[in-house]
Amino acid sequence: MTELRSILDEAARQGLISPEAGGRLLPFLTERGVAVVEPQPAAADGSAWSDTETPRFVRGFHDVLITIGVIVGLCGLWGLSALYAVPVAIIVLSEILVRRQRLALPAVSLTIALFCWTCLLMSHFFPPWTPNAESFGAEATQFVAGFPIILGAYYARYRVPLSLALSIMSALAFVLTLLLRLVQWASGNPAFFLDHPAVLALVALICALGLFVLALYFDLGDRLRRTTRSDIAFWLHLGAAPALLYSTVSLLSLGADVRIFDVANMSSRTPVVVATVAALMLIGLVIDRRAFVTSGLLSLGVAIFSVFRQGSATVDTYIFTTLIIVGAIVLIIGTGWMPLRRQVLRALPPAIANRLPPG
Questions:
Q1: Which burial class, exposed, middle or buried, applies to 239 when counting CB atoms under 10 A from its CB (0-12, 13-18, 19+)?
Q2: Residue-wise over 50-62: b if at least 16 C-beta within 10 A, else e?
Q3: CB 252 within 8 A of CB 272
């Protein structure tokens, strides 16, 4: 963490601490989530303006340059070497770039690389599909089981917020697979979820709500967003929002095919998608997380696209019309985020508003 290192170096130059103590304090403080937040400029009315959703990804173009080198190097190694050579490179780079230099963006890229390698490793031993497409076999459970272990161990060593968030999400996915297998076993019907899609949608919604509650746990524990708990909450919200969206739409559109990504049948679900995205936008305003807005835009765009697709317009017409509508929604919400959020906070009871990030 560059800012914290600069502060400790300045303290050493002024004789407040020794250089050796500064070197020992840096990993001690960063591992416990201590971060430096830049002071916000004062607004015209004298109150401090604060845009609190600021995940610490990039602290300079140095991070971008290093990340490009990491991605290119790992891609080349992945194409030339065996499967087990990639994690060795990831660990070596993590020791240098993450544990010693505390570079944020390279840490994210290395975590994603580890996730991709874990996916490839687990699919090599446990292909996440079954011979019978109607049943839910043990392969999916075994496939998911390795993710929380590997990513959790990576977080224990390097304290990357994304690795903990991915570990939590994969653990919930593991719980989901166990629940599905338990229900399938209790019913005695291998095609139970094909015959009862409502149960599948309900179980998925319960797990999505559990992920959202975990994200709120990290968020409310750091309402001013000064520690890495905020970064962990950001990644969890980024995963919880689409999970809530798709599970909710599945549950509320059971009269038709529950495959949400089927563009041909999306027009029948357009009101459900729009209402769900609007609810997620309201939740995002309340908790000051734009992830809830951005995650729903893809599905909203698909729903609008399908409406125009059912008409007599040409391909160019409904594609560009969809882009204009979605772009206008993004601009309206993006430019009016803070005023809208102040209105929402004023409508909430003080006991709830005081536990949320300030508006």
A1: buried
A2: bebbebbeeeeee
A3: yes
User: 162 near 230, Cβ under 8 Å?
Assistant: no
Amino acid at the residue 101: Q
Helix residue ranges per DSSP H, the chain: 2-13, 19-31, 61-80, 85-93, 104-125, 138-158, 161-187, 192-195, 197-220, 228-252, 270-287, 291-310, 315-335, 337-347, 350-353
**Tens of pLDDT along 74-122?**
999 988 877 788 999 999 999 999 998 888 899 999 999 999 999 999 8
199: amino acid identity, one letter: V
Specify the long-range contacts of residues 109-114, CB closer than 8 Å, at least 24 apart: 109/67, 109/70, 109/71, 110/70, 110/160, 111/151, 111/154, 111/160, 111/162, 111/163, 111/166, 112/162, 113/70, 113/71, 113/74, 113/86, 114/87, 114/90, 114/150, 114/151, 114/154, 114/163
pTM of the model: 0.78
Cβ neighbours of residue 11 closer than 8 Å, sequence gap 6 or more: 17, 22
Residue type, 29: L
Per residue in 302-319, pLDDT tens?
A: 767 766 666 655 666 767
Rounded Cα distance between 239 and 261, Å, is: 17
CB of 212 closer than 8 Å to CB of 244 = yes
Residue 351: what residue type? A
Asked if residue 236 lies in contact with residue 211, where contact means CB atoms within 8 angstroms, the answer is yes
